[in-house]
Amino acid sequence: MRPVGIRTTRLVLDLPVPADAELVTRYCQDPLFERYLTTPWPYTRADARAFLSEHVPESWASGTELTWALRRVEGGPLLGVISVRDTQHELGFWMGAEHRGEGLMSEAATAVVDWTLDGGIRGATTVLWRAVEGNVASARVARAVGFRRIEPADATVPTRDGTVTLPAWYAVREASVDPAAHASWDAVLGAAA
Ligand SMILES: CC(C)(COP(=O)(O)OP(=O)(O)OC[C@H]1O[C@@H](n2cnc3c(N)ncnc32)[C@H](O)[C@@H]1OP(=O)(O)O)[C@@H](O)C(=O)NCCC(=O)NCCS
Q1: Which CATH architecture does the domain made up of 6-189 adopt?
Q2: What atom in ligand 1 is closest to the CA of residue 130?
Q3: CA of 55 to the centre of ligand 1 (A)
Q4: 3-46 confidence digits (pLDDT tens)
C-alpha cells in the first residue's frame, strides 16, 4: 500500500522519515516505554534508523503495519507515532513525553480508527486495542476513541523478548460506537469521566 496522509483538527498524520531519527531516539528513552511497549530497550539511534528507513516503508509496502507520524504542521517535528497492524487491525501508539495530556493522541487515534473502518483497510470491521494492565493513559485514549473493553480468556500480551506474557487489558471498536462502550471501562478506570 502507498502511504496515506490523514488530517485532523490539530494534526497532520504522515510518514515517519529518516529525518525524524533524533526525536524518535530521544522519545524512546522514556522509562514508560520499557514498561509498556515492545520497542527495543535500551533504545539507540540505530534502532530509530532501522525503524524509519526499513520497518516503516517496508510495512507500508507489504501492508503488514501502517505507521503515521503525528505532527502539528506538514514537515514539522514529530510528536508521536501511531500504527495499525494487519493482524486483527491492532492499534498501537506512543507520544513524546512533552506532548502528552493535550488530547492529541485521542484525536489521532480517532482519525486512524475512522479511516481504517471507513474503507482505508479493505474489509476491516473491527480495530483491536490492548495494553499491559495498569496502562491507564493508554486505556483513557481507548475509552475516548469509543473502544469497548472485552475480557478474552487469554488476556495477556507478550513482553519484548517474547518469552513471558503479562496480564493485559483488551478492547475493540466497530464502525459505530457501542452505547455500552464507555461504561465497560468503569471496572478499571472508575465510573468518573
Ligand atoms: C498513552 C499515551 C499515548 C497518551 O497520550 P496523550 O497524548 O497524553 O493522550 P491524550 O492527551 O489524548 O489523553 C487521553 C486520556 O488519557 C489521560 N491521560 C494522559 N496522560 C495520563 C497519565 N499519565 N495518567 C493517567 N491518565 C492520563 C488524559 O487525561 C485523557 O483522559 P480523558 O480522555 O479520559 O480525559 C502516552 O501517555 C504515551 O505515549 N504513553 C507511553 C506509551 C504507551 O503506553 N503507549 C500505549 C501502549 S498500549
Answers
A1: 3-Layer(aba) Sandwich (3.40)
A2: 48
A3: 25
A4: 999 999 999 999 999 999 999 999 999 999 999 999 999 999 99
